[in-house]
Amino acid sequence: MSYGRQVTVIGAGKTPFGSFPDKDLRTLAVEAGRKALANASMGSEAIEAFYLGNFAGPEFVEQNHLAPYISSALGIAGVPSTRFEAACASSGAAFFHAFMAVASGVYDAVMVAGVEKMTSQPTPRVTEILAGAGDCATEVKAGSTFPSLFAMIARRHMYDFGTTREHLAAVAVKNHENGALNPDAQMRKVITLEQAMNGRPIADPLNLYDCSLISDGAAAVILCAAERAREFTDKPVRVLGVAQASDWVGLDQKPDITTFAAVRGAAAKAYEMARLGPKDIDLAEVHDCFTIAEIIALEDLGFVERGRGGFFSFEGGTRRDGPKPVNASGGLKSKGHPVGATGVGQICDLVQQLRCEAGERQVKKHSTGLAQNLGGTGASCVVTILGRD
Amino acid sequence: MRTGTVYTETIVRAAPERFASEAPYQVIIVSLDGGGRVTARVQGENVAIGDRVLEAEPRAGVPWFRKLTD
C-alpha cells in the first residue's frame, strides 16, 4: 500500500482545558487555531482546508454547522470546512482524514482543530449527551451510562486477568501526578492511592477518580507537506503513521469486551506504515477516559501482554521515568477531556514532547510518540505515530 | 423465557436524568444459552459474573433477568 507524500505537523496550539463560563465554543476554537498558526509561523491565508472534530455541539451549545462557523472567524473563509464526528475520537478522525488529503497531494497545508464546550450543561444532562455515543436502542435504554459501560469492562478484566482495584487507582495517581505539572491541565492536584481507592462511587467498581473530567477546551494543529515544512518552521514533527478503525457501537455485540478490536486494528496499520513496533515507541498519550481504558490501551497497543496492563501500571511502568511513559500530560483524567478536542490535544502534547518543550513533564527519550484516541466503548479508534523530523 | 449466564455487571450509582429515581440499579450483559448477548436489568437480588439468570417480564422494551436458583 502506498501512503503518498510525507506529512509533518508544523504548528500546534491548545487552550487550557477546564471550565470557562465566559468563553463560548467558537471563542475557544479560534483561540486554539490562532495559537497553532502562530506556532507554525504561518498566516491564515496559507490554509487550504479546515477539518474540525466535535462530538456534540448541537446538544451541548445548540449550534450546528460548526466548521465554517469557526473557520470564517479564524480568517480562513472560503476553503472546504467540514466537521467530523466519531464520539470522543472526533478530532482523531478529522486528523486522519486531513492527513490523507495532504499525503495524497490535494493540499499542502491544512488546519485540524477539535473543540467541545461541555460545562454549559448540568452533569446529569452531560451524562445523557455522552451516552449518545453508545447504542441508544439497547444499552442506553437499559440505563447504561459511559462510566457504567467501562465499569462492566473493568469487572470482566478483573475477572479474566486478576486486575485489581489498586491497579485502577495507580493509573489515576500517576496521571494526577503528571497533570499537576501541566499548566494547562484542568485538575492540577496530586492524589494518594488511598484517595483514588475511595472516591465517590459512580458505577461499581469505578469511582470518581477513575473517570475523566467534564471540560471545555480546544486544540489545533497545522499539517503540511514535508517538502514545504521548513518554509515555515525549523521544528517540524513527522507523521510516521496514522490509521483509523471501527467496531460495533454496542458493548454487548463485541465477542470480548476486555480488548478493543478497533484499537488493535488501527495500531497494526499505524505501526506498519511507520515501520515501527511497540518497542520503538518512546512515549504515548492514550485515551484514559476511564482508568481501565488506559490499562487496556497498554495491552491493545502491544506495550505489554494481554492482561498485564494493570500490573505494569501498578509497578510504575508508565510513569514519566518508567520504561514506557504514558500520559505525561496528565491524560484525560487530570488534563481534562473536552471530548471533541481530545484527539488533536494528544497530538499537541506529543509535539511538545518531541520538540523537547514539555518543561517539567519532559520525558528523557522522546524521538517517537504514539497517540491513541478512542470513541465510545471502542467503536472508533485513531492511532497516530509521530517522530522527530 | 430465555436463560443465560452473567458475562459482566455493574451497579450504576450516578444515573442519567431519566433514571435518577431508580438509582442505584444493576445493569448486566447476559451471554444467552441460545447464543448472543443482551444488555439487561436485574429483578430482585443482585447478580455476579458467572451467575445463571432467567428472563423476567420486559419493561418498556428493556429485557430484565433474575437470578436462577436451583
Oligomer: heterodimer
The value of Rg of chain B in angstroms is 12 Å
What count of helical segments of chain B does DSSP give? 0
What's the number of extended β-strand segments of chain A?
Answer: 11
Mean of residue pLDDT of chain A?
97
**Tell me, what's the shape of chain A?**
globular
Task: Estimate the helix proportion of chain B, in percent.
Answer: under 10%
Could you say what the CATH topology of chain B is called? Answer: OB fold (Dihydrolipoamide Acetyltransferase, E2P)
Task: Categorize the overall geometry of chain B.
Answer: globular
Class derived from helix and strand content of chain B: mainly beta
The CATH class assignment of chain B is Mainly Beta
The ordered H/E elements of chain B are: EEEEE
Q: Your description of this structure?
A:
The complex is a heterodimer of chains A (389) and B (70). Chain A has 389 residues and is an alpha/beta fold. Chain A has helices spanning 25-39, 57-61, 66-73, 90-103, 123-131, 146-161, 165-179, 193-197, 226-229, 261-274, 291-300, 309-314, 331-335, 342-354; strands at residues 7-14, 50-53, 81-84, 109-117, 201-203, 206-207, 216-225, 237-246, 283-285, 368-375, 380-388. Chain A has 14 helices and eleven strands. The relative contact order of chain A is 0.20. The mean pLDDT of chain A is 97. Chain B is an all-beta fold and 70 residues long. Chain B is built from no helices and five strands. Chain B has strands at residues 3-12, 25-32, 37-43, 52-55, 64-67. In chain B, strand 4 (52-55) and strand 5 form a beta hairpin. The two termini of chain B are 16 Å apart. The model of chain B has no long low-confidence stretch (mean pLDDT 95). The A-B interface holds A 124-125, 127-128, 131, 138-139, 141-145, 147-148, 151-153, 155-156, 159, 201-206, 250-253, 257 and B 7-20, 22, 25, 27-29, 37-41, 49, 60-63.
